[in-house]
């Protein structure tokens, strides 16, 4: 009778956990990242503490003792007696609920090289974007999913944040690698980090900056010549209950201040996506008020290029095109 009650209840609990919790991908084929993280663990520089989710386990043990006229274990009677003992042990360790966003659905469109001035982006803008890899969460992955940029220019996955990015692997050139090894393979001139939506409900602004510091310092060891940019977290719709734009703005303000005197640069990619009250414009929502529609990515990229290419913060030659500081007047 107890099995008929306990087993269905346990199955229901497992089902609920699977539906509401993002799972980490810890199958990392990434020796470079493993070595770097192991070395960092022995220094005081690594102050990152990642929340751990602990499952509650219930164990039921059943012991049956039968006494007959030939058994003296419990009592001596002429009638068989069955005694059932049920022991329940519950782990009381603290559990942390993940409040994060997962993947966006796959898109079947193939990537095609855009014509110059397509979507407001010039040939110089596209040359810069070809020299750049975007690293981040499922919002960032829309650049790849919607075929706005080639696969090799996007290293992103759902549930990723600054606090847990080293727990995941990413699809790069047909295989799965950790972020460190992925970037060491791609060797970009510029890296734009675009994440934070999976941090806003899970960490303070101060811890968010600390986690980002650890990420940037680790990746600088494998890309010492690359320039890093940290993009603002994008806004959410006014009626979205996932979080609040006030929290997002606090994270962005803290990061902007934190990087003020750093070699790494904060860039605002969110302003063009907002309406008067600071929330996400409805036409730029991917449907849930959090993820972005394809058109929103072109607004985002135009903002990025205006801030970096047009002001000559970046520059170089790519695909026969000079951009930024390398472009002649």
Give the helix/strand layout:
Blueprint (H helix, E strand, L loop, with lengths): L1 H19 L10 H10 L17 E10 L13 E10 L32 H8 L1 E5 L1 H8 L8 E3 L12 E4 L2 E4 H8 L3 E5 L10 H16 L6 E5 L13 H14 L6 E3 L26 H15 L6 E4 L2 E4 L5
Please explain how this structure is put together.
- The protein has 329 residues and is an alpha/beta fold.
- Helices cover 30% and strands 17% of the residues.
- It has helices at residues 2-20, 31-40, 123-130, 138-145, 179-186, 205-220, 245-258, 294-308; strands at 58-67, 81-90, 132-136, 154-156, 169-172, 175-178, 190-194, 227-231, 265-267, 315-318, 321-324.
- The strands form four sheets. A five-stranded parallel β-sheet has the order 4-3-7-8-9, sandwiched between helices. The chain has a two-stranded antiparallel ribbon with strand order 1-2.
- Strand 3 (132-136), helix 4 (138-145) and strand 4 (154-156) form a beta-alpha-beta unit.
- Helix 6 (205-220) packs across helix 7 (245-258).
- The radius of gyration is 26 Å and the shape is globular.
- Residues 1-21 and 42-94 have low confidence and may be disordered.
């Amino acid at each position: 009778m107890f099995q008929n009650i306990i087993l269905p209840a346990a199955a229901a609990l497992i089902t609920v956990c699977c539906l509401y919790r993002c799972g980490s991908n810890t199958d990392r084929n990434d020796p470079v990242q493993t070595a770097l993280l192991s070395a960092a663990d022995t220094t005081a520089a690594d102050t990152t503490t990642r929340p751990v989710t602990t499952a509650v386990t219930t164990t039921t043990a059943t012991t049956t003792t039968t006494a007959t006229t030939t058994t003296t274990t419990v009592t001596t009677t002429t009638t068989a007696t069955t005694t059932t003992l049920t022991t329940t042990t519950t782990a009381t360790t603290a559990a942390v609920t993940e409040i994060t966003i997962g993947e966006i659905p796959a898109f079947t469109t193939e990537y095609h090289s855009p014509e110059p001035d397509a979507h407001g982006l010039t040939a110089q803008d596209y040359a810069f974007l070809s020299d750049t890899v975007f690293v981040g969460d499922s919002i960032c992955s829309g650049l790849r999913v919607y075929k706005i940029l080639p696969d090799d220019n996007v290293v992103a996955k759902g549930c990723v944040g600054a606090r847990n990015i080293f727990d995941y692997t990413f699809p790069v050139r047909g295989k799965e690698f950790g972020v460190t090894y992925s970037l060491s393979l791609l060797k970009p001139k510029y890296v734009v980090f675009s994440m934070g939506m999976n941090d806003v409900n899970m960490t303070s602004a101060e811890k968010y900056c600390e986690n980002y510091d650890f990420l940037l310092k680790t990746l600088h060891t494998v890309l010492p010549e690359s320039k890093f940019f940290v993009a603002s977290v994008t806004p959410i719709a006014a009626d979205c209950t996932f979080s609040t734009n006030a929290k997002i703005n606090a994270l962005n303000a803290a990061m902007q201040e934190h990087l003020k005197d750093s070699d790494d640069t904060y860039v605002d990619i969110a302003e063009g996506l907002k309406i008067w009250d600071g929330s996400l414009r409805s036409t730029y929502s991917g449907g849930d008020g959090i993820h972005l529609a394809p058109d929103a990515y072109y607004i985002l990229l135009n903002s990025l290029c205006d801030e970096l290419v047009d002001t000559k913060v970046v520059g170089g030659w790519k695909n026969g095109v000079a951009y930024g500081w390398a472009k002649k007047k």
